[in-house]
Amino acid sequence: MLFDFLWFGSQTAMGGSAPDDDDDEIPEPAAVADARSRGKIYIADLPADIEPARRLLQRYSGIPARDVDKHIQDISQREKLWAIHPSVSVGHYRFLSMQFTSDPRYKDALNRLLVADSDVAFLDVGCCVGQVLRQLAFDGVDSSRLYGMDSESRFLRVGYELFRDRDTLKATLVAGDVLASGEKDEGEDASRLLNGKMTIIHVMSFFHLFSWQAQVRAAMRMINFLKPDDADVMIFGRHVGTTDPPDVEGRQGRQRYLHNAETWQDLWDHVGELTGTRWRTEVEFIDKAGIEMGGADGTVRRMRFGVYKA
Predict the structure, then answer these.
(1) Which CATH number do you get for residue 271?
(2) Alpha-carbon distance 237 to 100, whole Å?
(3) Are strands 200-204 and 2-3 parallel, antiparallel or unpaired?
(4) What does pTM read for this prediction?
(5) Per residue in 234-291, pLDDT tens?
């Protein structure tokens, strides 16, 4: 079901100079057409790593193999997303990336969700078209345990069209902004639906888009979503990190803070002080290929992380 009473607009203005889902600012409008024409943020052909998405659309959505590529490229899918959000993640089909399945924490989350009669609940923050939720459902998870949240409600609607499961998916999809306070008109309904109910939160390509202060706000909000008395809650995902943490000036005037293992723990120590909680983190740098984050090039790395109660 889609809860569509929240509307904040997309606060994660993403910006992309490189063909990667981790650096995803929207370029200035005047640059979009030029960047698209040069293939910088928009490619005509499907990427080489699309095969896992093809399999999901065949096996989960029931789309015949001969029709999958046409379905992915259909104007009702990517062009709708592009009209909403002309960025690298859309132009390079990163909204169908299945790389999250290689994260050992995904496998842990899946195993916990598959336990019969448990009350484990999973939230994907910034879920876009909901590919993570559909993969979990295909892997055997009762989709009524799944929740998705994105600041752009139209992404959620396109997800139903893409995966053809409007009548079968039981997940709760919420249009709302994790950076909102959760009070009155700033996320009150999302708080009512999510606060204190989640066991596992997944968040990908999100934290690196924001300043330290905004990351603190987002982390505090996520803590509110977690079950307060569950010692086994977990937040995990991936973002861009760095071997030399700086403040990086975003193209649209924001400061973005990139982390290494030490500063990531510092962030959660600070959040713990503010919320009366304690957290421990795990970090693995994955690779550094194809990432440009203005001013930090050469030091940036993809970074997988886990956050657990200490």
Answers:
(1) 3.40.50.150
(2) 8
(3) unpaired
(4) 0.85
(5) 999 999 898 888 666 554 555 788 999 999 999 999 999 999 999 999 999 987 655 5
Q: What mean pLDDT value characterizes the chain?
A: 83
Residue recorded with tokens 């992915």:
72
Q: Which residue has the tokens 């009150």?
A: 188
2: helix, strand or coil: strand
Q: Confidence band (pLDDT; 50, 70, 90) for 89?
A: confident
Q: Is residue 214 part of a domain?
A: yes
Give me the domain span that covers residue 107.
99-309
Smallest CA-to-CA distance from 106 within 310, 304, 309, 308 is with 304
Please count the structural domains in the chain: 1
Query: What tokens were used for 128?
Result: 């876009």
Query: Which is nearest to 78 in space by CA: 111, 108, 45, 38?
Result: 45
Residue 21: which pLDDT band, with cuts at 50, 70 and 90? very low
Measured between alpha carbons, how far is 91 from 112 in angstroms, rounded to an integer? 34
Find where tokens 């484990």 sit: 120
H or E stretch covering 112: helix 104-113
Residue type, position 169, single letter? L
